[in-house]
Amino acid sequence: MKFIETIDDLSKEKLLILLKNYAKNWLAHDGCWFLSVERKFGMEVAIEMDTDSWRMFTVIEAKRLIDFLELGKNSGIDGLKRALRFRLYASLNEDEIIVNGKTLEYRVKTCRVQSARRKKSLADFPCSSVGIVEYGLFAKTIDERFETERISCPPEITNDDYYCIWRFKLLDK
User: pTM to 2 decimals?
Assistant: First the structure.
């Protein structure tokens, strides 16, 4: 077996495994951070701080994906669909994307965050208010014409087949 000293020494297969590990580690850190704030200050403060963090991070992530995927400015439904597939946690959750004209629905079937909380006997994270900021700003960064709507998300799950559902409408401006 070849001695691996740096990332440059890894095969494509090993890089893909490492990429998934990095995503898991990032999500675990995000969860540890949130749980620490939640324990010390309560859920309301934790959500407020998480929202502020996502307000900044989601725009950074979207801009980097625009560059990486060479989407260009205001890349519409196709750009958002591609960018969602490349988000940092894209390889961790099972999801589906449904496109109907100028509307894209993003449906999350499995959610590592909620699954981890349930394993620890914690209540679902009421992520709706954080999600509208996260997904709304992500979509607006991809294309400023997007309007984002929460269809189903804790604490208001309207479809038990999915952890959350987000609808993005491309408006004519």
Answer: 0.89
Bridge partners of 166, per DSSP, are 106, 150
Residue 153: DSSP 8-state = B
Over the chain, what is the mean pLDDT? Answer: 91
Q: pLDDT at position 125, please?
A: 78
Count of the separate structural domains present in the chain: 1
What is the C-alpha to C-alpha distance for residues 116 and 127, in angstroms, rounded to an integer? 14
Beta-strand ranges (E) seen in the chain are 95-100, 103-108, 146-152, 164-170
DSSP state of 73: S
Residue 63 lies in a domain: yes
pLDDT above 70: residue 2: no
Question: Could you tell me the CATH number of the domain that includes residue 156?
Answer: 3.30.1380
8-state DSSP, 156: B
22 within domain boundaries: yes
